Amino acid sequence: MAQKTIKAVLFDLGDTLVNFGKVDRATIFMEAARTSYDYLKRAGQPVGNFRLYVWRNVLGMRAKTALSEIIGRDFDSLEVIKYSGSRQGWKLSDEQWEDVNKCWYEPLRRRGRIEVDLAETLGKLRDAGLKLGIVSNTFVHACSLDAHLGELGILDFFPLRIYSYQLKFRKPDKRIFLEAAKRLSVEPEETLFVGDRINKDVKGAIRAGMVPVLKSAYTSEGKRLDEGVLKIDKIAELPEIIAGMNN
């Protein structure tokens, strides 16, 4: 059966659109803890001493992550912050709660890099009539992720952004891929999915009937890729590839 015309391109976020590279989680966590703690102190909130603040959040994160793995669903970091903070007596406006969420994301935001010509590439795809979207496994709230994409100058290319904490399933569950195709009003087989993880992005896209493309990253180094799956080093390669597929 001939391949259908590609009408949409979906992207993973981390280490696909935005490259974070290998990071030391402990370092990231401590930087985020300090940034959020200092913000809360300036806002006059009862956060106690820093060591207690760190340990409370370490234990809370471990518990939430463990539960997430068991149920196969990501949690909403903003709701967790609001619940935990309210129990500790924090009184913040909606904007301030979001600011705290952004403080926890800040160390990753500082490390995020994109291809120098990414906006140009996305413009070519959009101008070719392709619908664009993001599907990302994450517990980081949209207020932080969307703000970062805006700073990078690429937010407006993605009217569709699905973050897994918003749903009851995540990649590689085919339902999250199918939900994205449904929202874009395209068939799965008309959709290219670009991601950096074989087990999450490539396998999930295949299960959903989409055309998978593996974006080179440290996350897939040394791992076996099924024969016939496209692999790219840069997003900039996509316009030519899709043009060839649609001819």
Q: How would you describe this structure to a colleague?
A:
This protein is α/β, with parallel strands linked by helices and 247 residues long. The chain folds into two domains: 8-20 and 113-246, 3-Layer(aba) Sandwich (Rossmann fold); 25-111. Helix content is 49%, strand content 11%. The protein is built from nine helices and six strands, in the order E-H-H-H-H-H-E-H-E-H-E-H-E-E-H. The chain has helices at residues 25-42, 50-71, 77-87, 94-111, 118-127, 142-151, 174-184, 198-208, 238-246, and strands at residues 8-11, 131-136, 160-163, 191-195, 211-215, 230-232. Strands 3-2-1-4-5-6 form a six-stranded parallel beta sheet, with helices on both faces. Helix 6 (142-151) links the parallel strand 2 and strand 3 (160-163). Helix 7 packs across helix 8 (198-208). The model has no long low-confidence stretch (mean pLDDT 95).
